[in-house]
Amino acid sequence: MSPGSYNVKDQSLIGDAQSRPSLEVKFRLNIEGQEMVFTRPVQYKYTDPVKGELYQPLTILPPVTGRFDPELVLFMDGEQKDFEVQTKVQTSHDLQPKISLTNTGAISVKQTGGGGSNFIYSAKPGSKETELVYSDLLFEKNGKPDTARELKTVAYDHIPRIDYFRTSQEKFVVADIRISGKRIGYIEGAGDKVPQADREAVQQAIQALKDTLGSDDSAQIKAKTEALAQASMKVGEALYKAQQAEQAGAGGGPSQEGPSQGGPSHGGGGPGGNDKVVDADFEEVDDQKKRGSA
Fold first, then answer.
1. Which of 80, 81, 57, 55 is nearest to 70 (CA)?
2. CA 230 vs CA 185, 225, 235, 237, 275: distances in Å
3. Residue 198's pLDDT is what?
4. Quick one: pLDDT at residue 196?
């Protein structure tokens, strides 16, 4: 299943504008022997001090929900990383969740702190080889381990609230990522052709990416990489425009062999010259006519 997709067991539900309610009530009316059945969803009603009476779908929650923070732990150089497991008891009963993690492969995971509903864990890879490991969150239910689920909510004023669940899962990634240099590239003599603001933007983007690589936030790493690419593109555009301007200036000036096409043949008729241009008729005389006239 790809990200953003969901498995639908009942194919007849595909295409419905809304998910079916958790609970429904059927009202049966019998009028003169004719039975009529009305089905209505069970909803949650509350009063907002500003919006007044509101109705929202009823969601049946599991006893315990949990999530990882962050959901991705990235190891770049075999260093130890910490992450947090946040649980929430969704029942009125006095329940102390007992949690555990599924197999984490060669990655060593141990609890280092926390208590109550939040737990701190530390993880360290056993080797620097590239590895991808998924670990689910389990909690003890009636003496048996059960997979914990994470509650996700989509809430906007113009649509009913949507609650859905997904497996609470942590992603461990061991990757060989190193910073081999501080400069992307250098073109000799191009510094004066690139605006100072564009050069500073590239330097700031490089530093921002370096700072982000030390974290586990893949979204931020991707965003900083794209920002650096955009800043580098502006530098390339500035160099291209400067090159085009140089070529245009070299092609438009007078050549060494003589005056440019359309210019005067003598007399210094270049820019700033004092020659006057006069319209006149002329006739070409060959050598024979010259001898006859003599």
1. 81
2. 15, 9, 9, 11, 53
3. 74
4. 72
pTM: 0.54
Share of the chain above pLDDT 70, in %: 74
3-class SS of residue 263: coil
**Long-range contacts, stretch 111-116, CB < 8 angstroms, 24+ apart:** 112/82, 114/84, 114/85
The dihedral built from the CA positions of residue 62, 64, 69 and 71, taken in this order, carries a sign that is negative
pLDDT digits (tens, 9 = 90+) for 236-247: 787 777 777 777
**Apex 25 CA angle, 21 and 29, nearest 5:** 145
Which run of H or of E encompasses 82? strand 81-89
Whether residue 62 contacts residue 89, with contact meaning beta carbons closer than 8 Å, is answered with: no
Nearest to 131, CA basis, from 119, 123, 139: 123
> What phi and psi values does residue 248 have, to the nearest 5 degrees?
-65, -40
Q: How far apart are CA 106 and CA 250, in angstroms?
A: 64
Q: Which residue has the tokens 């419905």?
A: 16
Q: Which of 13-27, 57-71, 226-240 is the least confident region?
A: 226-240
Residue environment code for 151-180, b if the CB has 16+ CB neighbours within 10 A, otherwise e: beeeeeeeeeeebeeeebbbbbbbeeeeee
The SS3 of residue 164 is strand
Instruction: List all residues 6 or more positions away from 274 whose beta carbon is below 8 Å from its beta carbon.
Output: none
Q: Is the Cβ–Cβ distance between 72 and 216 less than 8 Å? A: yes
List the domains of the chain with CATH numbers. 19-57 (no CATH), 64-174 (2.60.40.10), 193-243 (1.20.1270.10)
